[in-house]
Design brief:
With 547 residues, the protein is mainly α. The protein has 3 domains: 321 residues, no CATH class; 87 residues, no CATH class; 110 residues. The chain is built from 26 helices and 8 strands. Helix 4 packs parallel to helix 7 and helix 13 packs across helix 16. The chain starts with a helix and ends with a strand.
């Protein structure tokens, strides 16, 4: 067992921690969740989030605090920005492993559940980016785990400790992403206790964690209210109620949107869904842990599906219980010796991998799809992609020739690892030229002085703030997600239209004190109205002007 634990730790570090700095930060999310903590550190204001010096109240502070701590420890770089998300993934896997090891009897199910979670495509992809869904999933997973430990605990003192920890993590989840974090445990626990015919214990389970959560949240809640009484009005009504029920949401998607997201996000394991379904019987439904995992997956899934606005990352809290359910079904299939369906599916997946590599290869050589993903000087990237896909197919075929059941399932899950690791190196130049402006911005650093007026479109503003360590960038034409912050009187004249920008340039004529960063779209719209620059440079979608 010690060897397996060490293997899992080394596997996690190699897959999740070491690659964090290989890719540049991506707009808009990563620069947003990097810049807000940077401004917290610089200003010393840890209560109210600010972006570009403006009030930014879309989320509470815990996610920003975690990143700020990471930046203090690791420096202001991509590794420090992404480390909290990667650590959150590892701790989630450890919680899943602990639950399965303590409460599920089948050998190997605990390690398989953690392995499934860590090698699932979406879980891995989100852990490699600086977004708040990772820390939210961490605290929700820890909260759900602590509740189940309390539910199964007979000793009153130990149960109280678990309930306090449950409340602690609920409070931290609330401080990461708001009221959603309180809704998810309720959606799971109430039906579960009714299913277990222990609904009378709701009040006994509720009061201690509720009190703990309040005590965790209260100091910051009072602090932000003193700092800005409008925070709770905006955060509750605009960011929660209007977003959830709006007929014109920010990211509108149909009710069924998360079904293909889950199936794609759980790859390669979702390919074995028929095996899992076939092995699940009424015996599993008599297991409290299985019931708990079912509710933990189904009710949040329905909740997220009911929201009018949806993003791929929202569904992340459903992956830990789904990994547990898959592990239960797959272990039963391994122990039963019924491998025929597994073999058929694995051959099918290997065939799809070979066909996918062939289509990519043919497309790159002929351009028959109308566009080449990789440019002429990126041959090594698409060769790497094709090689990684073919490697996955080869390992899948190897897995069905392996007699040992556990080696077979280990090879199945390990097959895409070359692709996961290689993904950090294969971003096409087209993507970098439209989503990764940091290197281009740093090239202009010699032209940016302490007294240079920085002007940017809303798309690039967060990156400009991060690269130059500024929180006073003027916005051109677009306010975007900074609209709320600009409504404050102390925001000053931070939003310029093109006429105002031209006047500013005229006032500073021939001084070289104005730097403008905009994207191609805004430039195409206002090109004829712009004054003549003293200097211009462009990289992909990003354009720099000096006046």
């Amino acid at each position: 067992m010690k060897k397996i634990y060490w293997f899992m730790l080394i596997f996690y570090i190699g897959l999740y921690i070491l690659p964090l700095s290989f890719r540049p930060l991506i707009i808009p999310d990563e620069f947003r969740y990097a810049e807000i903590p940077r401004e917290m550190i610089a200003s010393g204001d840890w209560a109210g989030p600010h972006l570009n010096g403006l009030h930014y109240y879309e989320k509470p502070v815990m996610g920003y605090w975690l990143t700020a701590i990471s930046l203090r420890l690791c420096g202001e770089n991509a590794f420090g920005v992404r480390l909290p998300s990667a650590l959150a993934a590892g701790i989630c896997a450890a919680m899943v492993l602990a639950l399965m090891r303590r409460f599920h009897g089948r050998r190997g199910a605990a390690f398989l559940s953690a392995f499934i979670l860590l090698t699932s495509l979406e879980f891995y992809a989100i852990a490699m980016f600086a977004v708040l869904d990772g820390p939210l999933t961490l605290f929700v997973t820890l909260a759900m785990g602590m509740f189940y430990f309390a539910y199964q605990e007979i000793n009153p003192k130990k149960r109280a400790v678990f309930l306090v920890l449950f409340g602690l993590f609920c409070g931290l989840a609330f401080m990461t992403k708001g009221f959603l974090a309180l809704a998810l445990p309720v959606l799971v626990i109430v039906p579960f206790l009714f299913w277990e015919k222990r609904a009378k214990e709701l009040l006994r389970f509720a009061w201690l964690p509720l009190l703990t959560a309040i005590l965790v949240v209260l100091p910051w809640a009072l602090s932000i209210h003193r700092s800005d009484p409008d925070f709770w009005h905006y955060f509750f009504w605009v960011e929660h109620m209007q977003r959830f029920f709006s007929n014109h949401p920010q990211h509108p998607q149909p009710f069924w949107y998360f079904i293909p997201v889950i199936l794609a996000g759980l790859l390669p394991w979702s390919g074995l869904l028929p095996v899992v379904i076939k092995e699940i019987s009424f015996k599993e439904f008599r297991d409290p842990l299985f019931r708990f995992a079912m509710g933990w997956f189904i009710f949040p899934f329905l909740f997220f599906s009911a929201s009018h606005g949806k993003l791929i990352t929202y569904i992340l809290p459903c992956f830990p219980p789904l990994a547990m359910l898959f592990a239960i079904g797959l272990v039963k299939a391994l122990e039963s010796g019924r491998h025929k369906l597994f073999v058929i599916i694995t051959i099918g997946m290997a065939t799809v991998a070979v066909l996918t590599a062939g289509v990519l290869l043919f497309s790159q050589l002929s351009g028959f799809l109308g566009v080449k993903v990789f440019g002429a000087n990126e041959t090594w990237k698409w060769v790497l992609v094709c090689g990684a896909i073919l490697t996955a197919g080869s390992i899948w075929l190897l897995s069905i020739r392996t007699a040992d059941s556990w080696k077979r399932i280990a090879l199945f899950g390990a097959a895409p690892l070359c692709f996961l690791i290689g993904s950090h190196f294969i971003l096409p130049e087209l993507t970098l030229a439209s989503k990764a402006p940091e290197a281009f911005l740093r090239q202009q650093a010699g032209r940016i002085g302490p007294d240079t007026l920085l002007v940017s479109d809303e798309k690039l503003a967060k990156a400009v703030c991060w690269v130059y360590g500024r929180n006073n960038v003027l916005l051109l034409e677009q306010a975007g997600e900074l609209s709320y912050g600009l409504s404050y009187k102390d925001s000053g004249e931070r939003l310029l239209n093109m006429a105002q920008f031209n006047s500013l340039v005229a006032e500073e004529k021939n001084k070289g004190r104005i730097a403008l960063f905009i994207g191609n779209n805004l430039y195409a719209e206002f090109e004829k109205q712009m004054p003549l620059p003293a200097h211009k440079e462009q990289y992909g979608d990003f354009i720099f002007f000096q006046f």
